[in-house]
């Protein structure tokens, strides 16, 4: 049966799983993820402003109630779609790759581009770790995940102390530093690829958009790394 005579649902499925469609899905989910990590970093950088500011920020987020979990599940859905699409595209590229292509390609691409799959695995594992650590509080719970702070208006979780206690442990601080170096590299190549897929990095805009990706990765990486390093070295939270 020709594609023109195929049932509508089959044609739709084929269109949605075409290589072009998968690349667009990768770009859109990547854009959402890149936006989230910026928002997440800006929120957490408030730890430099002290306990009151950081705990008030965390309390404001928790005050959103069910919307917080809607956002979290939405982000996990976006992440799952991004990862599954990356796997599908990677498999297609591998299946279509002629002998010797990898060696030729490695000479023309950046280190981040060559190891995007590995970086993605590292980040996926880190996201699980991060959620269990600072979001759910299951890992390293003895460092203050359940601490309560008393304020003039009542009580709230003392996430500031949990944050400080965690990054005073060298192994935890180093884990976050390494993971955020991987994130910076992933974003540096991924954001540039996203612009190309969406047709923005062309013509006279090609060079500027190729710079934006690595620059964005560096900004996010340095911002996120600054926090565990500042705590570990006693710049913030020191006695």
Characterization of the model:
With 239 residues, the protein is mainly α. It has one domain (20-232): Fumarate reductase/succinate dehydrogenase, transmembrane subunit (3 helical TM bundles of succinate and fumarate reductases), CATH 1.20.1300.10. Helices cover 72% and strands 3% of the residues. It contains ten helices and two strands, in the order αααααααββααα. A two-stranded antiparallel ribbon has the order 1-2. A hairpin with a 2-residue loop joins strand 1 (148-151) and strand 2. Helix 2 crosses helix 9 (170-197), helix 2 (19-44) packs parallel to helix 10 (206-232) and helix 9 (170-197) runs antiparallel to helix 10. The longest helix is centred in the middle third of the chain and has 31 residues, at 66-96. It is globular and about 65 Å long. The mean pLDDT is 86.
Comma- or semicolon-separated keywords:
2 strands; mainly alpha; 3 helical TM bundles of succinate and fumarate reductases; 239 residues
State mean pLDDT (0 to 100 scale): 86
Our count of helices gives 10
Flag low-confidence runs.
none
In CATH, the topology is named 3 helical TM bundles of succinate and fumarate reductases
At the fourth level of CATH, the homologous superfamily is Fumarate reductase/succinate dehydrogenase, transmembrane subunit
């Amino acid at each position: 049966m020709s594609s023109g005579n195929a049932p509508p649902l089959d044609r739709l499925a084929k269109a949605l799983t075409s290589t072009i469609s998968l690349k667009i899905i990768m770009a859109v989910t990547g854009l959402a993820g890149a936006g989230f990590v910026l928002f997440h970093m800006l929120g957490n950088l408030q730890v430099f402003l002290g306990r009151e500011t950081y705990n008030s920020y965390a309390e404001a987020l928790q005050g959103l109630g069910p919307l917080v979990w809607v956002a979290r599940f939405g982000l996990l859905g976006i992440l799952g779609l991004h990862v599954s699409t990356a796997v599908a595209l990677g498999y297609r590229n591998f299946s279509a790759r002629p002998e010797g292509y990898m060696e030729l390609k490695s000479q023309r691409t950046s280190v981040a581009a060559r190891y995007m799959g590995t970086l993605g695995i590292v980040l996926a594992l880190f996201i699980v770790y991060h959620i269990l650590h600072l979001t759910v509080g299951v890992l390293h719970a003895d460092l203050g995940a359940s601490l309560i702070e008393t304020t003039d208006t009542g009580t709230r979780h003392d996430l500031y102390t949990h944050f400080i206690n965690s990054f005073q442990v060298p192994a935890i601080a180093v884990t976050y530093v390494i993971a955020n170096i991987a994130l910076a590299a992933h974003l540096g190549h991924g954001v540039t690829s996203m612009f190309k897929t969406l047709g923005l990095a062309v013509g006279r805009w090609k060079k500027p958009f190729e710079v934006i990706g690595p620059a964005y990765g560096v900004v996010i990486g340095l911002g996120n790394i600054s926090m565990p390093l500042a705590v570990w070295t006693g710049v913030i939270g020191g006695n």
